[in-house]
Model the fold of this input.
Amino acid sequence: MKKINFDNLKTAPADVVILGAKLFDDGSIPPILSSRLKAAAAMWQIRSDLTFYLVGDIDDTKAMQTALLEDYHLPSDALRSCPKGTTTFAALKACLEDLKLSSVLLLTSTFHQKRAAYIAGRLGLHYEMFDMTLFETVDNHYYDRREQLAMVKARFETGLYRLRRRAAQKAGAAGKKPL
Done:
């Protein structure tokens, strides 16, 4: 997995996918999502040609868009909202299938990067990963067990996706209706 930082940001894809995170019950942005938004704002200062795709559920994407517009003063034409992903798999699948993105820079927390990279790779999405170490304020070790369990789910989801895609290709080649 290629890590992008501020030294090599100019060589990274211009399409940046910011993966959402569950908001607090009161609708406020948790620290793990706040660090992603701070990183996006810092990236924008270096490269104003970037387009940020905000993926998550409806509440996540609205909160991210509001914060990037009002708190970090990014222009609205640099932001695209994609409220189709309630999971990492669904979010990255939407990037590939709905947004038609083929090469992206993923912006997510360090603890989440391994799983996001696995899913993106299995979906066939070409990606690079932004190094979040300068921005994180949470203890990533807290999330280790959660990520281990989530990786099992990711392996199942991507395996099933690839199996269905192959079956549809075979059915199409044989002139049959896909599943």
Observations:
- The chain has a mean pLDDT of 91.
- Strands lie at 3-4, 15-19, 51-55, 79-82, 103-107, 126-130.
- The CA atoms of residues 106 and 167 lie 29 Å apart.
